[in-house]
């Protein structure tokens, strides 16, 4: 869950370069989440997402450190 004080609806945007450190957040949420949404409040908004777990655990450490 992420909250901010801007009430503007979030929109996916692409980073403008390979080294950009922003501009990919909502694209990642859309790609990885089973469901996601935005709740608006007088003071801003909250973006939430639901991630579904695999039935079998995944060895991410072994996966990331493959030769």
Automatic annotation (TrEMBL):
Keywords: ATP-binding, Nucleotide-binding. The keyword Cytoplasm does not apply. CDD domains: HATPase_RsbW-like. Residues 1-22 are annotated as: Disordered. GO terms for molecular function: ATP binding. InterPro entries: Anti-sigma-factor_SerPK, HATPase_C_sf. PANTHER family: ANTI-SIGMA-F FACTOR RSBW, ANTI-SIGMA-F FACTOR RSBW-RELATED. This is ATP-binding protein. It comes from Streptomyces narbonensis. The lineage of its organism: Bacteria, Bacillati, Actinomycetota, Actinomycetes, Kitasatosporales.
């Amino acid at each position: 869950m992420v909250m901010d004080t801007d009430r503007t609806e979030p929109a996916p945007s692409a980073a403008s370069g390979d080294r950009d450190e922003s501009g990919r957040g909502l694209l990642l949420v859309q790609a990885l989440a089973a469901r996601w949404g935005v709740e608006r409040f007088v003071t801003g908004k909250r973006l939430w997402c639901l991630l579904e777990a695999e039935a079998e655990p995944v060895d991410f450490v072994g996966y990331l450190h493959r030769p």
